[in-house]
Amino acid sequence: MTDMPSSQQILTQEQRLHWVRFDNALAWQLGCTLKAAAEQRQAAVAIEVWGFGQVIFAYAMPGTSTDNLDWVRRKRQTVLRFGHSSLYVGQYNREKSREFERLPQISPLDYAGHGGSVPIKLSGGGLIGAVTLSGLPQVEDHNLVCAAMLRVIESLA
């Protein structure tokens, strides 16, 4: 099991994941990179790349269920609403001694403060989507997404 990073550590990690450009071809490349990484780990995960108001890439590996797809949706909604990774949102609230899903303005049917969804932000700061994974423990979901994003971002340099 991977240790839970602090909210500040997660923010620092997010700052490295800004894109100079993003389009459907990069979404496909990112989704395929995540799929290959999950296969290498022999992990059963659901993957989604959401951008420009729609699903651009989605894949549910054998061994996943509709529960994974619901986790993907709830984690993605958290990123799109708050502009930070779902792991950050959950950890920030834990550090404030509160449970994200119990906040009065949050419906746990629609949002999840569990790791696995990371914002797609352009270098200028605009939030254009989210990359989400479900099937591993939350920190592992988050780290796998971040590693795949960084790999694709660095390939653009």
Keywords:
five-stranded mixed beta sheet, alpha+beta, Beta-Lactamase, 5 strands, 157 residues
Specify the structural class.
Answer: alpha+beta
Q: What is the tally of beta strands? A: 5
Q: Tell me the helix content.
A: 40-55%
CATH topology (level 3) name: Beta-Lactamase
CATH architecture: 2-Layer Sandwich
| Biggest sheet descriptor | 5 strands, mixed
Number of helices: 5
Give the CA-CA distance, first to last residue: 33 Å
Tell me what the structure shows.
The chain has 157 residues and is of the alpha+beta class. It has a single domain (7-155), classed as Beta-Lactamase. 46% of the residues lie in helices and 18% in strands. It is built from five helices and five strands, in the order αβαββααββα. It has helices at 7-15, 24-41, 66-82, 86-95, 138-155, and strands spanning 18-19, 46-51, 54-60, 117-122, 127-134. A five-stranded mixed β-sheet has the order 1-4-5-2-3. Strand 4 and strand 5 form a beta hairpin. The relative contact order is 0.22.
Concise overview:
It is built from 5 helices and 5 strands.
Please render the helix and strand layout as text.
Elements: H1 7-15, E1 18-19, H2 24-41, E2 46-51, E3 54-60, H3 66-82, H4 86-95, E4 117-122, E5 127-134, H5 138-155
Helix pairs in contact: 1-4, 2-5
